[in-house]
Specification:
By secondary structure, the chain is α+β, with helices and mostly antiparallel strands. The protein is built from seven helices and ten strands.
């Protein structure tokens, strides 16, 4: 591998280090440990050729758990406005099952899978020796490692002509507190330094289509992140006085029934469409036990 490309060994090493941190969404201490590890990796980059880099840990605005995100900016010697943003998340989904204790140790977990009943495809991948298994390896700590090691190489380039920004956030797997709490910071940096974001790339894994000739898809848009919700308002009444009230649970259930999988609500044309709508959460807004009809419900 030439000096023009990031080191596979460094990418693998950083991936394993990040995966060893059980940064499950909602575990603020562990998520902040992951942010610190990323911050330290960014600080270890040593620019040459007049290039400069800055990095910072910062609190996610409005996050009740006090979690942190990390950003960095690699700049060439000459002032330029054009900027490419590399972004992603460092939190992961929780682990379960008999191998849960090994899930954050990729080497041990990969070895242990040899004794597990796997699908044919997974077994082939495991036995090839070309794959590393473990929580967060693909989603998406290896992507962050690739970004950082790419910045390490670009920091020594004599031909860097754009800025490279980096932003890694917590809580992607849950309520997007990291993304929402980082926007003010990111926009402030953009305005202060007069950055022109011309592209943004995420290091999320890419799932190829099945078949003998798989096609690599490119994902754009905000599916699963910018979502509508319905607040249904009924009328509270004691269950003994049912006819005097209106159950918000019934209203919200009807909204779900009308929209769930309804192709009439699919956006796009031809083969370039979003998936049909589906309900990800549905609940009455009742904070305590009550024998009254729910007055509010959301989906």
């Amino acid at each position: 591998m030439t000096a023009n490309y990031p080191s596979p060994e460094r990418i693998l090493s950083l991936t394993k280090k990040l995966c060893s941190i059980p940064s499950v969404s909602g575990r603020a201490d562990e998520e902040n440990r992951a942010a610190q590890a990323l911050f330290e990796a960014l600080l270890s980059i040593e620019p040459t050729q007049g290039n400069t880099i800055r990095a910072e840990l910062f609190p996610c605005q409005g996050d009740r758990l006090g979690r942190q995100a990390v950003w960095a900016l690699l700049c060439p010697p000459q002032k330029v406005n054009r900027t490419v943003l590399l972004t992603g998340h460092f939190d992961v989904v929780d682990v379960q099952g008999p191998l849960a204790d090994l899930a954050f140790s990729p080497d041990a977990y990969t070895k242990a899978l040899a004794e597990v009943n796997l699908s044919k495809e997974a077994r082939e991948d495991l036995e090839s020796g070309n794959w590393l298994f473990g929580r967060g390896v693909m989603d998406m700590k290896s992507g962050l490692a690739i970004f950082i090691e790419t910045m390490r190489v670009l920091a020594q380039s004599s031909n860097l002509q754009i800025n490279i920004a980096f932003l890694a956030v917590p809580d992607e797997e849950s309520d997007s507190a990291g993304m929402r709490g980082s926007l003010t910071k990111l926009c402030g940096i953009r305005d202060e330094l007069e950055l022109d974001f011309v592209a943004a790339l995420t290091g999320e894994p890419c799932i190829w289509t099945a078949g003998k000739n798989p096609v690599r898809p490119y994902y754009t848009g905000t599916t699963g992140k910018i979502m509508p919700y319905f607040l249904c308002v009924g009328q509270a009444s004691h269950v003994n006085d049912y006819v005097e009230g209106a159950n918000a649970a019934l209203i919200v259930a009807d909204v779900v029934r009308l929209m769930e999988g309804n192709r009439a609500f699919i956006c796009g044309e031809g083969s370039d469409t979003l998936p049909p709508p589906t309900c990800l959460n549905c609940q009455t807004r009742v904070s305590t036990y009550s024998v009254s009809l729910p007055a509010k419900a959301v989906c």
